[in-house]
């Protein structure tokens, strides 16, 4: 599965979240570190859902950029 992630620049680091997995977040010092950590967070989040016998949501979020 491929989940969309959002990485935001914060004051002193980066923060990431997964729109299709509420509560699945990660922070890191660099974009690369944050991307690596959110991948780990997604795997951990999905593992926990499976262990709790919760349905794993299909990815539905789309990512587009617009020019203004």
Automatic annotation (TrEMBL):
Coiled-coil intervals: none
Pfam families reported in the protein's UniProt record: HicB_lk_antitox
Residues of the signal peptide: none
Top-level taxon in the UniProt lineage: Bacteria
Record-annotated HicB-like antitoxin of toxin-antitoxin system domain positions: 3-65
Alphabetical list of InterPro entries matching this protein: HicB-like, TA_system_antitoxin, TTHA1013/TTHA0281-like
Name under which the protein is recorded: HicB-like antitoxin of toxin-antitoxin system domain-containing protein
Organism name: Leptospirillum ferrooxidans (strain C2-3)
